[in-house]
Amino acid sequence: MTRKNNSMGAILLQKESFRRTKFGTLLYSDPISDHEESSNNSARSSNASSAPSPPRTSSFNGTNTTSNNNSPNYFMSPWNQSASPYVKSPWIHQPLLDSSEESESSDCKNGLIGSLVREEGHIYSLAASGDLLYTGSDSKNIRVWKNLKEYSGFKCQSGLVKAIVVYGDKIFTGHQDGKIRVWKFLGKKRKAYKRVGSLPTVRDYLKSSINPKAYVEVRRNRNVPWIKHFDAVSCMSLDKERGLLYSGSWDKTLKVWRLSDSKCLESINAHQDAINSVVVGFDGLVFTGSADGTVKAWRRELVGNSAKHVLVETLLKQDSAVTSLAVNAAAATVYAGSSDGLVNFWERQKHFLEYGGALRGHKLAVLCVAVAGNLVLSGSADKSICVWRREEGSIHSCLTVLTGHNGPVKCLTVEHDSNGSDSDSEDEAPMEKKSDKYWRVYSGSLDNSVKVWRLSENSFSGFEET
What we know:
The structure is a single chain. By secondary structure, this protein is mainly beta. Among the domains are: about 120-290, YVTN repeat-like/Quinoprotein amine dehydrogenase (Methylamine Dehydrogenase, Chain H, 7 Propeller), CATH 2.130.10.10; about 320-420 and about 435-460, Methylamine Dehydrogenase, Chain H. About 10% of the residues lie in helices and about 45% in strands. The strands form eight sheets. A five-stranded antiparallel beta sheet has the order 1-2-31-30-29, with no helix packed on it. A four-stranded antiparallel beta sheet has the order 3-4-5-6, with no helix packed on it. It is globular. It starts with a helix and ends in a 10-residue tail after the last strand. Pfam families: WD40 (PF00400). InterPro entries: JINGUBANG-like, WD40/YVTN_repeat-like_dom_sf, WD40_PAC1, WD40_repeat_dom_sf, WD40_rpt. Keywords: Repeat, WD repeat.
């Protein structure tokens, strides 16, 4: 019996090794092993490599964290046990400083706060809401963190988590299997989450399944109902004002969902290749970025008797895949990261968007972009995070480069840090104290870790250029 169990374990391990997808061409932002990354660096070099590198600093580098090579695979995860899923959690919290060091460095406005390290599995998605952080990985589980400590979590049956959106007490998760699952937070006392549905709803899906007119051809000899994604849901974005949720997929479509009744209002054949990013912008615009190398702007307008999204403008058309988008709504600026290592941006000029230029700071593909006030952050396959600040006159200056990850930086999310102002010195001018903003930045990497940073929008005295 023991020999049989051992052989079964070997089979499961062998299946797991074949199940992992490769990072490949970066068109779909899949994971890459360290060996593949080192061997393909020359093939992925971009124009950005010839540009002057921004100053790299060592002030943010904490102790590098590595995963345990002998850790169990996700089928041995405590989520699959009959006991509590939080016993022997595969996550490890590694704080940067101990209590004595933290008190001595309490005046530091910018720095690495700590790390959350997973023994196995890549980090694919992050979402922050208030003091809670949601992490999605290829273990198909979503874990919830509070103050760098495990707070709660919930699991799904299939489909690794590619995107997470939080809307009040509801959480929407997009998965590799093409499904959007809906969860509800049951309150602070219970600290639990319950699955309350999916998009589309079972009722709507069954209704469309029996209607021949509801089918569309997606491949040769394959028809599916138009209200459901038939490939991975790679990105989602929320329009709170209109109560709409946008989902982009590798099936090349952009779908629009009404949150009040979970109805799919539209399915737009938006691109010629996989959609990697969607973001709700300003002036009623929605931006999509695709592996086909384009960035498109859409707006919901009245067409006949119904409201539909129409293409307003194609902002970018290039050979390199567009991997990520971010918007600074206050400055009416949209940023697009791409596999050539550049971050292109456009700004509103009266009634149209004008190309503003490109941020050159990475040698490999940009995989994620985030905006925090006037700060712009770009995470890359070169394992670094560039921090830019938008100055007057649409000038962007690179303030520093955050290093410490041992793998490609796959996702970024930002939340206002209410504790940052507590570390200000008492003799600081009230006006400066009021104008400065502090941000908590979470970076997820394919090195199995999430790093937590604190950034001040205006105070960068702690950075030492080399």
